[in-house]
Design a protein that fits this description.
Length: 88
């Protein structure tokens, strides 16, 4: 019942106008995962597999902009905000 409700909600959502895709080299993704403080952290093999087989959803009517997140978090946030403001 909950899955059906979730699916119905997603079907009712309009498609996005803008997609922001954050990118990072696999080595950085692996290191960031190692540095995370998390119980049940993903293994390197999992992170590597997810990074190499990342599927980017396609939205024909949306503009997709890639943002390099291989920088400090504050800089990435600032860059994403700038992309959004420029889009608006």
């Amino acid at each position: 019942m909950l899955a059906a409700l979730e699916n119905r909600i997603y079907r009712q959502m309009p498609p996005p106008d803008l997609v922001i895709r954050l990118t990072v080299p696999v080595e950085v993704a692996l290191q960031r995962n190692k540095d995370r403080i998390k119980k049940g952290k993903e293994a390197d093999e999992y992170v590597l597999r997810r990074h190499t087989m990342a599927v980017v959803p396609t939205y024909p009517t949306a503009k997709t902009i890639e943002v390099d997140s291989n920088q400090p978090r504050s800089q990435t946030i600032q860059n994403v905000r700038q992309v959004i403001w420029e889009y608006l």
